[in-house]
Amino acid sequence: MNYTEYIESKRKAAKKISADIRERWNNRIVTRGLHLLGEQGAIQYLSDYGRGIGTAKVISFALCAEAEGYPEIAAGFWQKAFELETGEKATVTDVKNTSTTISTTPKSTPNSQKTVNNLEIVPELPPHLQPGRIVTMQPVDAPSERSYYIENPEYWGQPKRDGNRVIIIATKDKIYYQSRSTNLRQQPSIEIEQTLQQILTQLTTTTIELPPLTKGRVGEGSSVDAVNQLGTFILDGELYYKSFNGSEHRTGSQAATVNIENGFPTTQPQVVYAIFKCLFFNGNDLTTATESARIEAGITIGKLLIANSQEFEIVPTARTLEEKLLLANKQQTENREGEVWIQHNCQYIGGKNVRTFPMVRTKYCIEFDLLIVGLTKTKVVGRPFSAIEVAQEKNGKLVPMGTVGTGFNMEEMEEIAQRYAANPHGVKIKVRSQGLTESGLLWHARFLEFSETVNS
Predict the structure, then answer these.
(1) How many degrees, rounded to 5, is the angle at CA 45 between CA 43 and CA 47?
(2) Distance between CA atoms of residues 157 and 177, nearest Å
(3) Distance of CA 246 to the CA centre of its chain
(4) Assessment of whether the complete model's pTM goes beyond 0.85
Protein backbone atom coordinates (compact mmCIF):
# COMPACT_ATOMS: atom_id res chain seq x y z
CA MET A 1 0.00 0.00 0.00
CA ASN A 2 1.48 3.33 -1.05
CA TYR A 3 1.18 6.63 0.79
CA THR A 4 -1.90 7.84 -1.12
CA GLU A 5 -3.76 4.57 -0.67
CA TYR A 6 -2.83 4.57 3.02
CA ILE A 7 -4.42 7.98 3.61
CA GLU A 8 -7.59 7.10 1.70
CA SER A 9 -8.01 3.86 3.64
CA LYS A 10 -7.65 5.68 6.96
CA ARG A 11 -10.13 8.35 5.93
CA LYS A 12 -12.72 5.72 5.00
CA ALA A 13 -12.24 3.90 8.29
CA ALA A 14 -12.17 7.09 10.35
CA LYS A 15 -14.45 7.47 13.32
CA LYS A 16 -15.65 10.69 14.89
CA ILE A 17 -12.83 12.93 16.12
CA SER A 18 -12.79 12.75 19.91
CA ALA A 19 -13.16 15.74 22.22
CA ASP A 20 -9.72 14.89 23.61
CA ILE A 21 -8.07 15.43 20.22
CA ARG A 22 -9.99 18.64 19.58
CA GLU A 23 -8.99 19.92 23.02
CA ARG A 24 -5.32 19.32 22.23
CA TRP A 25 -5.79 20.94 18.82
CA ASN A 26 -7.12 24.09 20.49
CA ASN A 27 -4.80 24.22 23.50
CA ARG A 28 -1.53 22.94 22.07
CA ILE A 29 -1.69 23.75 18.36
CA VAL A 30 -3.97 26.74 17.75
CA THR A 31 -2.87 28.72 20.80
CA ARG A 32 0.75 28.46 19.62
CA GLY A 33 -0.06 29.14 15.98
CA LEU A 34 1.35 25.77 14.87
CA HIS A 35 -1.60 25.22 12.52
CA LEU A 36 -0.30 28.14 10.42
CA LEU A 37 3.18 26.64 9.95
CA GLY A 38 2.22 23.83 7.58
CA GLU A 39 4.13 20.56 7.86
CA GLN A 40 6.63 22.27 10.18
CA GLY A 41 3.79 22.79 12.66
CA ALA A 42 3.19 19.03 12.82
CA ILE A 43 6.91 18.39 13.22
CA GLN A 44 7.09 20.89 16.09
CA TYR A 45 4.04 19.43 17.82
CA LEU A 46 5.35 15.88 17.57
CA SER A 47 8.72 17.04 18.86
CA ASP A 48 7.09 18.62 21.92
CA TYR A 49 4.36 16.09 22.69
CA GLY A 50 4.87 13.08 20.46
CA ARG A 51 7.25 10.91 22.45
CA GLY A 52 5.72 7.43 22.40
CA ILE A 53 2.63 8.67 20.54
CA GLY A 54 0.53 5.99 18.86
CA THR A 55 -0.41 5.84 15.19
CA ALA A 56 -4.13 6.16 15.91
CA LYS A 57 -3.63 9.46 17.70
CA VAL A 58 -1.46 10.88 14.90
CA ILE A 59 -4.14 9.90 12.37
CA SER A 60 -6.74 11.65 14.52
CA PHE A 61 -4.67 14.85 14.47
CA ALA A 62 -4.42 14.60 10.67
CA LEU A 63 -8.18 14.18 10.34
CA CYS A 64 -8.81 17.02 12.80
CA ALA A 65 -6.50 19.33 10.83
CA GLU A 66 -8.37 18.49 7.63
CA ALA A 67 -11.73 19.10 9.28
CA GLU A 68 -10.54 22.49 10.54
CA GLY A 69 -9.35 23.46 7.07
CA TYR A 70 -5.54 23.20 7.43
CA PRO A 71 -4.33 20.61 4.87
CA GLU A 72 -0.65 21.55 5.14
CA ILE A 73 -0.25 20.61 8.81
CA ALA A 74 -2.49 17.60 8.13
CA ALA A 75 0.09 16.39 5.60
CA GLY A 76 2.75 16.52 8.29
CA PHE A 77 0.68 14.28 10.56
CA TRP A 78 -0.14 11.89 7.71
CA GLN A 79 3.56 11.45 6.94
CA LYS A 80 4.28 10.60 10.58
CA ALA A 81 1.40 8.13 10.77
CA PHE A 82 2.52 6.42 7.55
CA GLU A 83 6.06 6.11 8.87
CA LEU A 84 4.92 4.74 12.25
CA GLU A 85 2.68 2.09 10.74
CA THR A 86 4.71 0.97 7.72
CA GLY A 87 8.27 1.81 8.73
CA GLU A 88 8.67 3.68 5.45
CA LYS A 89 8.87 7.36 4.62
CA ALA A 90 6.56 8.96 2.08
CA THR A 91 8.31 10.20 -1.05
CA VAL A 92 8.28 13.88 -1.95
CA THR A 93 6.18 13.11 -5.03
CA ASP A 94 3.59 11.20 -2.99
CA VAL A 95 3.30 14.05 -0.50
CA LYS A 96 2.81 16.66 -3.22
CA ASN A 97 0.23 14.57 -5.06
CA THR A 98 -1.71 13.79 -1.91
CA SER A 99 -1.69 17.35 -0.57
CA THR A 100 -3.86 18.48 -3.45
CA THR A 101 -6.53 15.94 -2.53
CA ILE A 102 -6.80 16.79 1.17
CA SER A 103 -10.29 18.16 1.65
CA THR A 104 -11.14 21.27 3.60
CA THR A 105 -14.50 22.62 4.70
CA PRO A 106 -16.57 22.90 1.51
CA LYS A 107 -17.89 26.21 0.36
CA SER A 108 -21.65 26.46 0.43
CA THR A 109 -24.31 28.83 -0.69
CA PRO A 110 -25.62 31.03 2.14
CA ASN A 111 -28.89 29.13 2.54
CA SER A 112 -27.62 25.55 2.19
CA GLN A 113 -26.22 23.01 4.61
CA LYS A 114 -23.78 20.27 3.56
CA THR A 115 -22.84 16.99 5.19
CA VAL A 116 -19.18 16.06 5.64
CA ASN A 117 -18.09 12.93 7.54
CA ASN A 118 -21.68 12.49 8.81
CA LEU A 119 -21.67 16.02 10.28
CA GLU A 120 -23.78 18.80 8.83
CA ILE A 121 -22.00 22.03 7.98
CA VAL A 122 -23.61 25.36 8.87
CA PRO A 123 -22.20 27.79 6.25
CA GLU A 124 -22.14 30.91 8.43
CA LEU A 125 -20.19 29.23 11.24
CA PRO A 126 -16.38 28.86 11.39
CA PRO A 127 -14.95 25.30 11.50
CA HIS A 128 -14.43 25.21 15.28
CA LEU A 129 -18.06 26.17 15.92
CA GLN A 130 -19.67 23.57 13.67
CA PRO A 131 -22.15 21.13 15.27
CA GLY A 132 -20.22 18.22 16.73
CA ARG A 133 -16.90 20.10 16.74
CA ILE A 134 -17.23 22.56 19.61
CA VAL A 135 -14.83 21.87 22.47
CA THR A 136 -16.27 23.37 25.62
CA MET A 137 -14.17 25.49 27.94
CA GLN A 138 -13.77 23.48 31.15
CA PRO A 139 -13.04 24.77 34.66
CA VAL A 140 -10.17 23.21 36.62
CA ASP A 141 -9.89 22.87 40.38
CA ALA A 142 -8.92 26.23 41.84
CA PRO A 143 -5.24 26.43 42.88
CA SER A 144 -6.05 29.23 45.36
CA GLU A 145 -8.55 29.71 48.15
CA ARG A 146 -12.08 30.87 47.35
CA SER A 147 -11.35 34.26 48.92
CA TYR A 148 -8.73 34.98 46.25
CA TYR A 149 -11.31 34.87 43.45
CA ILE A 150 -13.86 36.78 45.48
CA GLU A 151 -11.43 39.62 46.10
CA ASN A 152 -9.78 39.59 42.64
CA PRO A 153 -11.65 41.99 40.28
CA GLU A 154 -10.35 40.07 37.24
CA TYR A 155 -12.58 37.11 38.13
CA TRP A 156 -16.36 36.97 37.89
CA GLY A 157 -18.37 34.21 39.54
CA GLN A 158 -21.29 31.98 38.56
CA PRO A 159 -23.03 29.24 40.56
CA LYS A 160 -21.99 25.74 39.54
CA ARG A 161 -24.96 23.86 38.10
CA ASP A 162 -25.42 20.13 38.72
CA GLY A 163 -26.31 18.85 35.26
CA ASN A 164 -24.79 18.03 31.88
CA ARG A 165 -22.99 20.49 29.62
CA VAL A 166 -24.94 21.08 26.41
CA ILE A 167 -24.17 23.39 23.50
CA ILE A 168 -27.16 24.66 21.49
CA ILE A 169 -26.53 25.64 17.87
CA ALA A 170 -29.70 27.35 16.69
CA THR A 171 -30.22 28.06 12.99
CA LYS A 172 -33.37 28.92 11.08
CA ASP A 173 -33.22 25.49 9.38
CA LYS A 174 -32.36 23.23 12.31
CA ILE A 175 -31.54 23.19 16.03
CA TYR A 176 -28.49 21.12 17.08
CA TYR A 177 -27.68 19.91 20.59
CA GLN A 178 -24.10 18.89 21.36
CA SER A 179 -22.70 17.27 24.50
CA ARG A 180 -19.36 18.09 26.15
CA SER A 181 -17.86 15.03 24.43
CA THR A 182 -18.82 16.66 21.05
CA ASN A 183 -21.53 14.06 20.36
CA LEU A 184 -24.77 15.34 18.88
CA ARG A 185 -27.79 14.38 20.98
CA GLN A 186 -31.56 14.45 20.80
CA GLN A 187 -33.58 17.49 21.79
CA PRO A 188 -33.96 17.71 25.60
CA SER A 189 -37.68 18.48 25.38
CA ILE A 190 -40.35 19.49 22.90
CA GLU A 191 -40.83 22.78 24.78
CA ILE A 192 -37.15 23.75 24.45
CA GLU A 193 -37.13 22.91 20.75
CA GLN A 194 -40.33 24.87 20.07
CA THR A 195 -39.15 27.92 22.01
CA LEU A 196 -35.87 28.07 20.08
CA GLN A 197 -37.71 27.77 16.78
CA GLN A 198 -40.16 30.45 17.86
CA ILE A 199 -37.62 33.16 18.58
CA LEU A 200 -35.83 32.37 15.32
CA THR A 201 -38.93 32.61 13.15
CA GLN A 202 -41.62 34.66 14.89
CA LEU A 203 -39.84 37.71 16.31
CA THR A 204 -40.45 40.42 13.75
CA THR A 205 -40.44 43.70 15.68
CA THR A 206 -38.64 42.98 18.95
CA THR A 207 -35.51 45.02 19.48
CA ILE A 208 -32.43 43.63 21.18
CA GLU A 209 -29.27 45.13 22.60
CA LEU A 210 -26.11 44.03 20.81
CA PRO A 211 -22.97 44.03 23.00
CA PRO A 212 -19.88 45.52 21.35
CA LEU A 213 -16.86 43.24 20.90
CA THR A 214 -14.62 45.26 23.17
CA LYS A 215 -12.83 44.53 26.41
CA GLY A 216 -14.27 45.58 29.72
CA ARG A 217 -17.91 45.90 30.71
CA VAL A 218 -20.23 45.47 27.75
CA GLY A 219 -23.88 45.90 27.05
CA GLU A 220 -23.85 49.38 25.54
CA GLY A 221 -24.47 48.28 21.98
CA SER A 222 -27.19 49.72 19.78
CA SER A 223 -30.77 48.46 19.62
CA VAL A 224 -31.62 46.62 16.42
CA ASP A 225 -34.51 44.73 14.87
CA ALA A 226 -34.28 41.05 15.89
CA VAL A 227 -35.68 39.76 12.60
CA ASN A 228 -32.69 41.18 10.75
CA GLN A 229 -30.01 40.62 13.36
CA LEU A 230 -30.75 37.56 15.50
CA GLY A 231 -29.95 34.85 12.97
CA THR A 232 -27.87 31.83 13.95
CA PHE A 233 -26.63 31.75 17.54
CA ILE A 234 -24.78 29.32 19.80
CA LEU A 235 -25.45 28.98 23.52
CA ASP A 236 -23.16 27.37 26.07
CA GLY A 237 -24.93 26.10 29.16
CA GLU A 238 -25.98 23.28 31.46
CA LEU A 239 -29.00 21.02 31.12
CA TYR A 240 -30.44 19.74 34.40
CA TYR A 241 -33.67 18.36 35.83
CA LYS A 242 -35.41 20.09 38.72
CA SER A 243 -37.32 18.16 41.39
CA PHE A 244 -40.41 19.36 43.27
CA ASN A 245 -38.24 21.24 45.81
CA GLY A 246 -35.91 22.82 43.26
CA SER A 247 -32.97 20.44 43.70
CA GLU A 248 -30.88 19.93 40.56
CA HIS A 249 -30.20 16.52 38.99
CA ARG A 250 -28.30 15.19 36.00
CA THR A 251 -31.17 13.00 34.76
CA GLY A 252 -34.93 13.13 34.82
CA SER A 253 -35.09 9.74 36.54
CA GLN A 254 -32.97 11.02 39.44
CA ALA A 255 -35.29 14.00 39.90
CA ALA A 256 -38.35 11.71 39.65
CA THR A 257 -36.90 9.46 42.37
CA VAL A 258 -36.64 12.47 44.69
CA ASN A 259 -40.27 13.37 43.95
CA ILE A 260 -41.45 9.81 44.66
CA GLU A 261 -39.46 9.47 47.88
CA ASN A 262 -40.92 12.73 49.18
CA GLY A 263 -44.55 11.91 48.45
CA PHE A 264 -44.96 13.62 45.06
CA PRO A 265 -45.13 10.65 42.66
CA THR A 266 -47.25 12.46 40.09
CA THR A 267 -45.09 15.60 39.96
CA GLN A 268 -43.00 15.49 36.81
CA PRO A 269 -39.37 16.75 36.85
CA GLN A 270 -38.84 20.01 35.01
CA VAL A 271 -36.08 20.16 32.43
CA VAL A 272 -34.10 23.41 32.56
CA TYR A 273 -31.42 24.80 30.26
CA ALA A 274 -29.21 27.19 32.22
CA ILE A 275 -27.42 29.68 29.95
CA PHE A 276 -23.80 30.49 30.82
CA LYS A 277 -22.87 32.48 27.73
CA CYS A 278 -23.18 32.81 23.96
CA LEU A 279 -20.43 31.73 21.53
CA PHE A 280 -21.85 33.07 18.25
CA PHE A 281 -24.25 35.97 17.83
CA ASN A 282 -25.17 38.61 15.27
CA GLY A 283 -22.77 37.04 12.74
CA ASN A 284 -19.81 37.29 15.14
CA ASP A 285 -17.58 34.55 16.51
CA LEU A 286 -17.54 35.48 20.20
CA THR A 287 -14.85 32.94 21.10
CA THR A 288 -12.36 35.61 20.02
CA ALA A 289 -14.06 38.25 22.19
CA THR A 290 -13.97 38.61 25.97
CA GLU A 291 -15.91 36.49 28.43
CA SER A 292 -17.88 39.59 29.41
CA ALA A 293 -19.09 39.94 25.80
CA ARG A 294 -20.13 36.28 25.72
CA ILE A 295 -22.03 36.60 29.00
CA GLU A 296 -23.86 39.74 27.87
CA ALA A 297 -24.84 38.13 24.55
CA GLY A 298 -26.12 35.12 26.49
CA ILE A 299 -28.21 37.41 28.66
CA THR A 300 -29.65 39.10 25.56
CA ILE A 301 -30.81 35.84 23.99
CA GLY A 302 -31.76 34.38 27.36
CA LYS A 303 -34.26 37.17 27.98
CA LEU A 304 -35.97 36.37 24.68
CA LEU A 305 -36.15 32.68 25.56
CA ILE A 306 -37.36 33.20 29.14
CA ALA A 307 -40.16 35.45 27.86
CA ASN A 308 -41.48 32.45 25.93
CA SER A 309 -40.68 29.47 28.14
CA GLN A 310 -40.02 28.31 31.72
CA GLU A 311 -37.46 25.79 30.50
CA PHE A 312 -34.69 28.40 30.23
CA GLU A 313 -32.79 30.40 32.81
CA ILE A 314 -29.86 32.80 32.77
CA VAL A 315 -27.14 31.76 35.19
CA PRO A 316 -26.48 34.85 37.36
CA THR A 317 -23.02 36.42 37.17
CA ALA A 318 -21.43 38.00 40.23
CA ARG A 319 -19.14 40.86 39.16
CA THR A 320 -18.55 43.02 42.24
CA LEU A 321 -17.04 42.05 45.58
CA GLU A 322 -20.47 42.29 47.24
CA GLU A 323 -22.11 40.13 44.57
CA LYS A 324 -19.39 37.48 44.80
CA LEU A 325 -19.66 37.32 48.60
CA LEU A 326 -23.42 36.84 48.28
CA LEU A 327 -22.90 34.13 45.65
CA ALA A 328 -20.54 32.11 47.83
CA ASN A 329 -22.77 32.51 50.90
CA LYS A 330 -25.87 31.43 48.96
CA GLN A 331 -24.17 28.37 47.46
CA GLN A 332 -22.91 27.20 50.84
CA THR A 333 -26.14 27.94 52.71
CA GLU A 334 -28.22 26.03 50.15
CA ASN A 335 -25.73 23.13 50.14
CA ARG A 336 -24.99 23.69 46.44
CA GLU A 337 -22.11 22.18 44.50
CA GLY A 338 -19.86 25.24 44.37
CA GLU A 339 -18.88 28.15 42.13
CA VAL A 340 -17.13 28.75 38.80
CA TRP A 341 -14.76 31.74 38.57
CA ILE A 342 -13.66 33.06 35.20
CA GLN A 343 -11.46 35.93 34.05
CA HIS A 344 -13.89 38.35 32.41
CA ASN A 345 -11.36 39.43 29.76
CA CYS A 346 -10.29 35.92 28.70
CA GLN A 347 -10.80 34.41 25.26
CA TYR A 348 -12.65 31.12 24.84
CA ILE A 349 -10.16 28.24 24.63
CA GLY A 350 -11.73 24.77 24.54
CA GLY A 351 -10.69 22.23 27.16
CA LYS A 352 -8.88 22.77 30.46
CA ASN A 353 -6.16 25.38 30.87
CA VAL A 354 -3.84 24.76 33.81
CA ARG A 355 -1.26 27.36 32.81
CA THR A 356 -3.09 30.66 33.21
CA PHE A 357 -6.23 29.37 35.01
CA PRO A 358 -8.79 31.52 33.15
CA MET A 359 -11.63 29.32 34.45
CA VAL A 360 -11.59 27.54 37.83
CA ARG A 361 -14.07 25.93 40.18
CA THR A 362 -14.37 25.97 43.94
CA LYS A 363 -16.45 23.20 45.47
CA TYR A 364 -18.10 22.43 48.77
CA CYS A 365 -18.14 18.75 47.85
CA ILE A 366 -15.36 16.50 46.56
CA GLU A 367 -15.62 14.39 43.41
CA PHE A 368 -13.70 11.15 42.90
CA ASP A 369 -13.18 8.72 40.04
CA LEU A 370 -13.29 5.38 41.86
CA LEU A 371 -13.06 1.75 40.85
CA ILE A 372 -15.93 -0.61 41.70
CA VAL A 373 -14.51 -3.49 43.74
CA GLY A 374 -17.75 -5.10 44.85
CA LEU A 375 -21.53 -4.90 45.20
CA THR A 376 -23.12 -5.58 48.57
CA LYS A 377 -26.03 -8.01 48.79
CA THR A 378 -29.62 -6.99 49.41
CA LYS A 379 -32.79 -8.73 50.53
CA VAL A 380 -35.01 -6.30 48.63
CA VAL A 381 -36.76 -8.11 45.79
CA GLY A 382 -35.86 -6.78 42.35
CA ARG A 383 -32.77 -4.84 43.43
CA PRO A 384 -29.46 -6.26 42.14
CA PHE A 385 -27.45 -4.92 45.10
CA SER A 386 -27.61 -2.66 48.12
CA ALA A 387 -24.49 -0.47 47.75
CA ILE A 388 -21.35 -0.14 45.65
CA GLU A 389 -17.99 -0.92 47.24
CA VAL A 390 -15.34 1.42 45.80
CA ALA A 391 -11.59 1.92 45.99
CA GLN A 392 -9.08 4.49 44.80
CA GLU A 393 -5.93 3.63 42.87
CA LYS A 394 -2.84 5.02 44.60
CA ASN A 395 0.73 4.10 43.63
CA GLY A 396 -0.42 0.93 41.92
CA LYS A 397 -2.50 -0.23 44.89
CA LEU A 398 -6.23 -0.18 45.61
CA VAL A 399 -7.18 1.77 48.71
CA PRO A 400 -10.74 1.03 49.98
CA MET A 401 -12.91 4.17 50.16
CA GLY A 402 -16.11 2.69 51.59
CA THR A 403 -19.49 2.32 49.92
CA VAL A 404 -21.87 4.38 47.80
CA GLY A 405 -25.54 3.66 48.42
CA THR A 406 -27.43 6.51 46.77
CA GLY A 407 -27.61 8.61 43.61
CA PHE A 408 -28.73 5.82 41.27
CA ASN A 409 -32.15 4.66 40.12
CA MET A 410 -33.20 1.10 39.28
CA GLU A 411 -32.16 1.38 35.64
CA GLU A 412 -28.71 2.64 36.62
CA MET A 413 -28.40 -0.08 39.26
CA GLU A 414 -29.01 -2.76 36.64
CA GLU A 415 -26.41 -1.20 34.34
CA ILE A 416 -23.88 -1.00 37.19
CA ALA A 417 -24.44 -4.68 37.97
CA GLN A 418 -24.16 -5.68 34.30
CA ARG A 419 -20.95 -3.72 33.73
CA TYR A 420 -19.37 -5.04 36.89
CA ALA A 421 -20.27 -8.64 36.05
CA ALA A 422 -18.76 -8.27 32.57
CA ASN A 423 -15.58 -6.53 33.78
CA PRO A 424 -15.06 -6.96 37.57
CA HIS A 425 -11.72 -5.15 37.55
CA GLY A 426 -12.42 -2.32 35.15
CA VAL A 427 -15.52 -0.25 35.93
CA LYS A 428 -14.99 3.27 37.21
CA ILE A 429 -17.65 5.65 38.48
CA LYS A 430 -17.69 9.31 39.41
CA VAL A 431 -18.73 9.87 43.02
CA ARG A 432 -19.47 13.05 44.95
CA SER A 433 -18.81 13.16 48.69
CA GLN A 434 -19.20 15.80 51.37
CA GLY A 435 -15.73 14.87 52.55
CA LEU A 436 -13.82 12.00 54.15
CA THR A 437 -14.05 10.47 57.59
CA GLU A 438 -11.06 10.37 59.94
CA SER A 439 -10.32 6.88 58.59
CA GLY A 440 -10.29 8.13 55.00
CA LEU A 441 -13.67 6.75 53.92
CA LEU A 442 -16.31 8.58 51.90
CA TRP A 443 -18.76 10.66 53.89
CA HIS A 444 -22.31 11.02 52.48
CA ALA A 445 -21.25 9.86 49.02
CA ARG A 446 -23.56 9.57 46.01
CA PHE A 447 -23.18 8.11 42.53
CA LEU A 448 -22.98 10.66 39.71
CA GLU A 449 -22.16 8.81 36.49
CA PHE A 450 -19.92 6.25 34.87
CA SER A 451 -16.31 7.22 34.33
CA GLU A 452 -13.88 5.60 31.92
CA THR A 453 -13.59 1.83 31.67
CA VAL A 454 -10.27 0.25 32.64
CA ASN A 455 -8.91 -2.71 30.68
CA SER A 456 -8.97 -5.82 32.80
Answers:
(1) 70
(2) 25
(3) 24
(4) no
